[in-house]
User: Which sequence fits this backbone?
């Protein structure tokens, strides 16, 4: 099944303003957005979730841990390099970026537990054991952050699954991180 990479000219009318938003945010229309433009509601939801997740209590490192943990678990050929580029642009420590991609230990216990908790939520479809929740809270996280991980997961399910369906081609700026 092939999907169109929409431009402003080929996108459905309700996606055109959304693609303008993509250009404002990224300086281009990322191919993921070009694919999602086929379904304006999907693109709007994705953009909204992306904005909302960036407004959570997580800092740039924690956002990256949640995004990349999910991207890597879902084996997303597009989002892993795209979020590597985003992490670099957010000035995330390259040691964190590499540890996430290589599945090696993160530099702090708190980030390690964030990754472990995010991964458990993905693998167990939102279920955590009482000991997993206790460990998460012992490093300073709260119920708020559990719900914020769910928000990030919703965003990543949309993008990862879209990329699997569409075999979205990697944008030029992300290729060096493939």
Assistant:
């Amino acid at each position: 099944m092939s999907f169109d990479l929409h431009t402003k000219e080929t996108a459905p009318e309700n996606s055109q303003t959304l693609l303008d938003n993509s250009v404002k945010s990224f300086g281009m229309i990322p191919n993921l957005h070009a694919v999602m433009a086929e379904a304006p509601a999907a693109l709007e939801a994705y953009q909204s979730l992306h904005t909302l997740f960036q407004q959570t209590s997580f800092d740039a490192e924690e956002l990256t841990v949640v995004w990349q943990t999910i991207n890597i678990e879902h084996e997303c050929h597009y989002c892993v390099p795209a979020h590597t580029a985003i992490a670099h642009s957010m000035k995330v420590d390259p040691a964190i970026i590499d540890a996430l991609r290589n599945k090696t230990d993160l530099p702090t216990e708190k980030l390690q537990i964030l990754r472990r908790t995010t991964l458990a939520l993905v693998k167990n479809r939102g279920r955590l054991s009482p000991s997993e929740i206790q460990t998460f809270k012992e490093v300073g996280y709260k119920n708020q952050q559990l719900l914020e991980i769910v928000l990030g997961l919703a965003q990543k399910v949309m993008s990862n699954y879209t990329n699997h369906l569409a075999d979205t081609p990697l944008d030029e700026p992300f290729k060096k991180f493939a």
Summary: The chain is about 65% helix and 0% strand. The mean pLDDT is 97. The two ends are 23 Å apart (CA to CA).
